């Protein structure tokens, strides 16, 4: 059973539909206690960094996530803002502490080339950088759908699972043990996105 | 590199896809969920649904269409038409929309966009600008489905929308809509070059060459296309192959 965390941020329906399309049972949960039953956990998210951290903290998610994901090792997938929240700190609106699972900071794009727009909206090519099982059957140059103004700058190069380029190189995905996350939206990236979600459900729990 | 986008635009009326000329003379062009499936299979980059159903009571049909499309089309959807309140935005996002397009409600109450962008994130909010030349030859913004003229030119309004927090601008030339005579390249370029958010240009695409012009001369980040896909045998993937051949960096359907 895949638990999708509902903390009031983001389009949960698409994520749920995509896993159901793959034949997976899903549950959308807004009570941290329900996390216990899940074998895999997805943290989606659209919105601002501080709002999201506040929402997670207000509903009591922080401790439960720490226990179930970091300590118990359940496979975890963060999507978009759900990836950025894993960092030590975000700078969106004002400096704000993140979950601190992935070493690094979330920064706004610095676009020197005037032709580039913020947010980055659309399909961009990625380059898997390691051997993350999340990117099995994904090749360099495959495209995924991105919508974001901020990106995670990793403090530890070996956490990076894929890179992308928008005015500058940036991190498109991370992996650290059982913790996976993508800046792009696999649930909106047609066949390539479905492959990523399939890889996630095929990970050994 | 970020790809240039090609976006089928589906105009909805009482549960059917329709298409007209200069916002009038509507013709039925099919079932929107079926249309969406076809465009999805043909590698469209996103979809735009604009509902022009007059009565609010029939609003539920739109939510059903979005939810049904979301069952099997794993791509981004922008939905608009008659969005007036934060609750309208929320309901569309819950039904499966990724972005919500707003026109009239922002003109009447600019704070609405500011609040919506704050609450849902600016990447969720699309500012739609419908414009045409008035009797004096001045470009003017129109609301209420092209029926009410506002005393603003599209460039000024584009800047204001950006300030209010839109994440994208959907720019439509009413004069060109459905004419197959090509995009309004001049205004498209003027606005695309001036603002920092992506501009989706729309209105007038009738040939493959018009698509290439929209990117090369109009400097659009994306093109929204109705008639070319509804009424000809062109499909998103055929257009992408053509554009690639023209040296434009597009995604070829995956």
Features:
heterodimer; A: 205 residues; alpha/beta; Rossmann fold; nine-stranded mixed beta sheet; four-stranded mixed beta sheet; 5 helices; 13 strands; 23% helix; globular; B: 254 residues; eight-stranded parallel beta barrel
What is the overall pLDDT average of chain A? 93
Distance, first to last CA of chain A: 11 Å
- Helical fraction of chain B: 25-40%
CATH topology name of chain A, in short, is Rossmann fold
> Oligomeric state of the chains?
heterodimer
- Count of discrete alpha- or pi-helical segments spanning 4 or more residues of chain A: 5
CATH architecture of chain A: 3-Layer(aba) Sandwich
* Most extensive interface: A-B, 37 and 36 residues
**Annotation, overall tally of beta strands of chain B:** 12
Number of strands of chain A: 13
- Which strand order spans the largest sheet of chain B, edge to edge or round the barrel? 1-4-5-6-7-10-11-12
Note the overall shape of chain A. globular
Low-confidence stretches of chain A: none
Largest sheet of chain B: 8 strands, parallel, barrel
Radius of gyration of chain A: 16 Å
CATH class of chain A: Alpha Beta
Low-confidence stretches of chain B: none
Q: SSE order of chain A in H/E notation?
A: EHEEHHEHEEEEEEEEEH
| Biggest sheet statistics of chain A | 9 strands, mixed
Shape of chain B: globular
Task: Bin the helical content of chain A.
Answer: 10-25%
Write the layout of secondary structure elements.
The complex is a heterodimer of chains A (205) and B (254).
Chain A: E1 2-5, H1 12-21, E2 26-29, E3 40-43, H2 49-58, H3 61-71, E4 76-79, H4 81-84, E5 89-90, E6 96-97, E7 104-108, E8 120-128, E9 143-148, E10 150-154, E11 160-165, E12 169-176, E13 179-182, H5 190-202
Parallel strand pairs in A: 1-2, 1-3, 3-4, 4-13, 5-7
Antiparallel strand pairs in A: 5-6, 7-10, 8-9, 8-11, 11-12, 12-13
Chain B: E1 5-13, E2 16-21, E3 24-30, H1 32-41, E4 47-51, H2 60-70, E5 77-80, H3 86-95, E6 99-102, H4 104-108, H5 110-120, E7 125-133, E8 139-143, E9 148-149, H6 154-164, E10 168-173, H7 185-194, E11 199-202, H8 208-216, E12 222-225, H9 227-231, H10 236-245
Parallel strand pairs in B: 1-4, 1-12, 4-5, 5-6, 6-7, 7-10, 10-11, 11-12
Antiparallel strand pairs in B: 1-2, 2-3, 7-8, 8-9
Helix pairs in contact in B: 1-2, 6-7
């Amino acid at each position: 059973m895949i638990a999708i965390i509902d903390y009031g941020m983001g389009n949960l329906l698409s994520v749920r539909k995509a896993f159901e399309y793959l034949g997976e049972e899903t549950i959308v949960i807004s009570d941290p206690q329900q996390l216990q039953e899940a074998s895999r956990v997805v943290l989606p998210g659209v919105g601002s960094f501080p709002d999201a951290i506040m929402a997670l903290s207000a509903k009591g998610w922080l401790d439960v996530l720490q226990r179930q994901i970091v300590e118990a090792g359940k496979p975890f997938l963060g999507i978009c803002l759900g990836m950025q929240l894993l960092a030590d700190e975000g700078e969106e609106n004002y400096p704000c502490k993140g979950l601190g699972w992935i070493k690094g900071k979330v920064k706004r794009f610095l676009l020197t080339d005037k032709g580039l727009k913020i947010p980055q909206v659309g399909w961009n090519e990625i380059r898997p950088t390691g051997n993350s099982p999340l990117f099995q059957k994904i090749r360099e140059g495959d495209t995924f759908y991105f919508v974001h103004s901020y990106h995670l700058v990793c403090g530890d190069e070996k956490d990076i699972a894929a890179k992308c380029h928008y005015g500058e190189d940036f991190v498109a995905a991370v992996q650290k043990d059982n913790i996976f996350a993508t800046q792009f939206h696999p649930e909106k990236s047609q066949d390539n996105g479905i492959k990523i979600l399939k890889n996630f459900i095929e990970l050994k729990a | 590199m970020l790809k240039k986008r090609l976006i089928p635009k589906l105009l909805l009326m009482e549960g059917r896809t329709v298409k007209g000329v200069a916002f009038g003379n509507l013709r039925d062009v099919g079932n929107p969920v079926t249309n969406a499936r076809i465009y999805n299979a043909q590698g469209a980059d996103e979809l735009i649904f604009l509902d022009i159903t007059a009565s609010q009571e029939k609003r539920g049909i739109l939510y059903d269409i979005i939810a049904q499309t979301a069952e099997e089309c794993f791509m981004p959807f922008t939905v608009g038409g008659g969005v007036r309140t934060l609750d309208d935005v929320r309901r569309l996002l819950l039904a499966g929309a990724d972005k919500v397009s707003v026109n009239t409600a922002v003109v009447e109450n600019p704070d609405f966009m500011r609040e919506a962008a704050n609450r849902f994130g600016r990447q969720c909010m699309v500012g739609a600008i419908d414009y045409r030349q008035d009797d004096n030859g001045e470009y003017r913004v129109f609301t209420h489905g092209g029926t009410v003229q506002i005393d603003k030119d599209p460039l000024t309004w584009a800047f204001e929308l950006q300030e209010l927090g839109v994440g994208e601008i959907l720019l439509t030339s009413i004069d060109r809509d459905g004419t197959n005579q090509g995009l309004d390249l001049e205004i498209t370029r003027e606005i695309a070059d001036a603002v920092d958010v992506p501009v989706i240009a729309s209105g007038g695409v009738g040939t493959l060459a018009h698509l290439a012009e929209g990117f090369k001369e109009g400097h659009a980040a994306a093109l929204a296309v109705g008639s070319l896909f509804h009424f000809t045998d062109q499909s998103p993937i055929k257009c992408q192959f053509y554009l690639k051949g023209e040296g434009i960096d597009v995604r070829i359907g995956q």
